[in-house]
Amino acid sequence: MFKKILVPTDGSDVGAKAAAVAAEMAKASGGQVVGVYVIDPFPYIGIGDASAVGLQSYLSDAKRVAGAALDKVGEACRAQQVPFAGDTIERNLVWEGILETAKAEGCDLVVMGSHGRQGVKALILGSVAQKVLTHAELPVLIIKG
Known about the structure:
Radius of gyration: 16 Å
CATH class: Alpha Beta
Strand order of the largest sheet: 3-2-1-4-5
Number of domains: 1
Strand content: 15-25%
Helix content: 40-55%
Number of helices: 5
Distance between the termini: 25 Å
Mean pLDDT: 89
CATH superfamily: HUPs
């Protein structure tokens, strides 16, 4: 049914659960999985060499974390013998990066985890999953943590 499944990940346990579900679905339908990790842009642009050093350090750390998170998605896909491709992108709004990737890759489903924040925590921290659900033009499956 679904041939190209996008799995946005943050490296969390709930992200790994979403990857496992997506890999099983892809195997059942003869599809593939595309993983994406969205990096927040460097939070401070100052003047001088300190800014350049800080930017490089930030991006290096962010790419390392992204690689580890995408490796977890890749492992789930290898376990199911499902084709996998992963990418790291940089966007101001994570949910927009997810939906841009889904469109650019021609995905027909997004499978993502949700930490299940409610009340004040959800209000203050926001919910990437909620934003994706609200703005998506394709089906979204939320795996609760």
